[in-house]
Every structure is written in structure tokens, then in C-alpha cells.
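Supplementary Methods. Inverse-folding protocol.

Structures were first reduced to a C-alpha cell string of length 288. This string, shown here, constituted the complete conditioning input.
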């Protein structure tokens, strides 16, 4: 049985020259994504992004066992974006999925763009932006589900944010990103080890100021699950330990300084008795 992490949060969905589609376009445009772009997967992501802590864990089971202490991945990575970015004009959220981090970044940044390769995810995020809520199903077990509702905080100005389908490793073909000023901060949350060419993605920020301005930051979160089925082993940004892994990442970021690094444990629920426990390596880099 495939793990929830490999099935859901790390979809092999970034390919060069993937093309571009505006959100809420007609069905005439070819849908982008992969075989996991189903209601089941969208429901999983909506729970992971939008569910309260009490929604994530079965309360009757939690009262009988010791649940591991974990961090909210989205909350923490957004905190790091807010903390280390000296500019607050604009932010880019790469691999935004159903968009929670994009919305949260809009509390501090003047404009925020969320990008994902999956049409299904972008459609869900755009629905939340326009309708401010979206119902979804939480799987309990077998045939049993519970209906929940993702709700956008009314304090968030949804006019400050937008969503677009595109390829994180080929931003040059995403029209909505071409007329903007360089971003102050870019979030890359748990996508590096599912890119076919992760170094190519980072070169977009090292070889010019087109997308990230001088003094801007990258917040990179990854559990470093490097696998040949997604990435050529010669392109793995890995190491035998945490520090050597960061060193490999740093070699791809010439002209950047590392500001911060931490281990971030979190969990993703599949059903009431099954969870994936992940420890992401998070680092913050400033462009000199």
C-alpha cells in the first residue's frame, strides 16, 4: 500500500514546459495534474490545509493514547516568511496545493500569488478565494465520512491574492508572473524532492532578479525523500546527514546566505487510525 505522503503531498507533478492555464477557465483547456487529482485527494489536502487541530485527530482515540507533538507546517512556514522577509510588498507560494499558505501570507504581504501544477487544487483554492468557503469530506474509515467546511478568515483581503496553474520549475511560461515586479519572498514547501530537476528550479532565483529581488528570501521546506522515480539520482540535493544536505542545497544557491534552519515535525491524516509522521528540514536563505 502506498503511503499517504507519496500519494498525496508529494505528487510528481512538476514538469518543464507544462504550459499555463488561468483559474476557472473553460473545460476546453486541457486539465493539468496527475492520476491522483481526484475528490479523495482534494479532500485530503483540504483537511491538511484547512482543518482545525481538533479536526485532524479523532478525539475519542486521542483521549486513550499519547499523540505525538507536532507543528502546523503551514503556520510555521508562513511565520518564517513573515519573520525573515524585510520587504512585505509581494510573495510567491510555489506548490501551493489548495492554498492555505497563500491566504495566510496575504495577512502580511501586499500581494500574494499561489502556483500549483494541479488544476484540481487551483480550482479549489480559487473557489475559496471567491466563495470564502468550501465543503469537503473527512474519511473516517471504510464507507464512513464526515462533512467539514473550509472557511477563509474574513480578516483576509482576498483581493490581495490570486492563484495560477503552472510549473514551478519553468516560471517563464506562466504569463501572470511576467509583468510583476520581483517578489520579496518565495515559499517552496515540500516540492524540491519531487522535481525532476530541482537545481533548475533554484537557478530561476540565482541567475537573475526576475522573480526574486536582491535582499529577498527563499523559505524551503522538504523531508528530502529523494527517489529515482521522480528525480535523476545525479540531481539529488541530498547528504548523509542534515548539515551535508543543507550544504548540497547551498551549492545550488550561490549568492545566497543561510539565515535559519530547523527540523519541523508534522502529521497528515489518512483516516482516524492512520497518519503519516514527517520531519521536514526547513531553511531560510537571503539573496545577497
Amino acid at each position: 500500500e502506498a503511503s499517504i505522503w507519496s500519494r498525496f503531498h508529494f505528487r510528481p507533478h512538476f514538469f518543464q514546459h507544462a504550459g499555463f492555464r488561468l483559474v476557472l477557465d473553460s473545460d476546453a483547456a486541457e486539465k493539468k495534474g496527475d492520476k491522483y487529482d481526484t475528490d479523495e485527494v482534494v479532500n485530503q489536502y483540504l483537511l491538511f490545509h484547512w482543518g482545525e487541530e481538533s479536526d485532524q485527530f479523532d478525539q475519542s482515540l486521542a483521549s486513550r493514547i499519547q499523540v505525538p507533538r507536532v507543528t502546523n507546517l503551514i503556520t510555521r512556514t508562513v511565520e518564517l516568511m513573515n519573520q525573515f522577509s524585510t520587504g512585505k510588498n509581494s510573495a510567491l507560494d510555489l506548490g501551493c496545493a489548495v492554498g492555505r499558505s497563500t491566504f495566510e501570507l496575504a495577512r502580511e504581504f501586499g500581494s500574494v500569488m499561489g502556483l500549483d501544477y494541479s488544476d484540481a487544487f487551483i480550482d479549489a483554492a480559487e473557489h475559496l478565494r471567491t466563495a470564502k468557503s468550501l465543503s469537503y469530506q473527512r474519511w473516517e474509515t471504510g464507507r464512513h465520512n464526515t462533512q467539514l467546511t473550509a472557511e477563509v478568515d474574513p480578516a483576509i483581503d482576498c483581493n490581495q491574492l490570486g492563484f495560477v496553474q503552472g510549473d514551478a520549475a519553468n516560471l517563464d511560461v506562466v504569463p501572470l508572473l511576467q509583468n510583476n515586479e520581483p517578489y520579496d519572498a518565495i515559499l517552496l514547501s515540500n516540492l524540491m524532492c519531487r522535481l525532476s530537476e530541482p537545481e533548475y528550479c533554484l537557478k530561476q532565483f540565482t541567475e537573475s532578479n526576475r522573480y526574486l529581488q536582491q535582499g529577498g528570501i527563499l523559505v524551503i521546506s522538504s523531508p528530502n525523500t529523494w527517489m529515482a522515480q521522480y528525480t535523476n539520482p545525479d540531481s539529488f540535493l541530498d547528504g548523509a546527514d542534515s548539515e551535508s544536505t543543507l550544504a548540497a542545497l547551498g551549492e545550488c544557491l550561490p549568492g545566497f546566505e543561510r539565515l535559519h534552519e530547523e527540523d519541523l515535525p508534522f502529521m497528515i491524516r489518512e483516516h482516524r487510525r492512520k497518519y503519516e509522521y514527517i520531519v521536514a528540514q526547513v531553511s531560510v536563505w537571503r539573496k545577497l
